[in-house]
Amino acid sequence: MMDERFNDLMKEIEKLHHRHELSKTVTPDYFEPGMMEYLDKSEGIYEPETGRITLRFEAKGTRYDGRTEYIEKMQCGDRITVLRDRANPYNSNNFTMENARGDNVGHFPAELCNVIAPLYDNDLLTIDEAFISFVDPLTKRSRHAKQAVLFVEVHCTIN
User: Fold this and answer.
1) What mean pLDDT do residues 31-51 have?
2) Which one, of 129, 128, 118, lies nearest residue 94 by Cα?
3) CA gap 151, 159 in Å, rounded
4) Cβ contact 15:44 at 8 Å
């Protein structure tokens, strides 16, 4: 069972890494909203010798519940607290993120939640630290933008 869960996690890590690698081939004039923006901000790395995992991904749900206002005040390097959110009505595998003041600033993408939660819940994975790796506040984006962009870097260890 661990092998299957671990393989699912490795697939998600590879997807994040692929986005990062794709950023090296996409020219600046290429634009596809929601798909090709901020490719270089994503990353997934697994170090087999230490069991250490680095995940860099875009936070989801940033435009709801006043999160845009909280994100306006955030900067790269700010610490994030990751909380397991089993009571989430949309996904019982959810992980939510809070800033230093305890304000919810978003969630892990569902795909990551669904592969991390079973490992985390069975003490097979620990989340060591998390921080902001990139922020593009709504006030600095195009007038057509509907939400802030927040990327988080999370360091985990396979136990």
Assistant:
1) 80
2) 118
3) 25
4) yes
Q: What whole-number distance in Å separates Cα of residue 153 and Cα of residue 131?
A: 6
Are 94 and 60 contacting, i.e. CB atoms less than 8 angstroms apart? no
Strand order in the sheet with 104-107: 81-84, 95-98, 104-107
Cα end-to-end distance, the chain, whole Å: 15
CATH number, domain with residue 70:
3.30.70.2330
Number of domains in the chain: 1
Domain coverage including residue 36 = 2-158
Q: pTM of the full predicted structure? A: 0.88
DSSP state of 148: -
Type and span of the H or E element at 110:
helix 110-121
pLDDT tens sequence across 47-63: 999 999 999 999 998 88
